[in-house]
Amino acid sequence: MNRRPRTPHRMETSHSSKVRCETPAVYELVEHTADIGILVSGSSVEEVFAKAAVALADLQFDPSLVERRRKLAVVLEDADGERLLVRWLNELIVLRETRDFLWTAVEVELTRGSRLSALLEGETFDEARHVPRMGVKAATYHQLRLEQTVAGVGARVIFDV
Questions:
Q1: Is the peptide bond before 24 cis (omega within 30 degrees of 0)?
Q2: In this structure, what CATH number is given to the domain that contains residue 70?
Q3: In total, how many domains does the chain have?
Q4: Are the C-beta atoms of 10 and 79 separated by less than 8 Å?
Q5: Which structural domain range is residue 118 located in?
């Protein structure tokens, strides 16, 4: 099977504006054999990244039970927009698994189209109050899309569960 070399996927960002997204999440589920996916859309790349983070929270736990007790900063860089989206979501999965951190609000800023700065608001998992949902192992590159649309920007991400 011949494959064309993949070219980096660059997206125009809205000149370093911050976008805040809170639960409840607005997204569509994508059914996939043994996995699950999400479709998110927004007026900017920043909004799509923020909505994807809130959708991931909704898949993993009930964010309505999470209080805003702590803030956690995340900074990532990648010139490829799709790769940055996957890295971002995988970083959130790592925070959930290694630090037991749950988030209910996220603020995202993209600068130079390649640097993501985010602030998560939430708290540490408390088994007496929080309800786990689905175990998400990783965001994947399978059927990944981050693209300009007529309405703004859209993304499709499949998660390994």
A1: yes
A2: 3.55.10.10
A3: 1
A4: yes
A5: 18-27+46-136
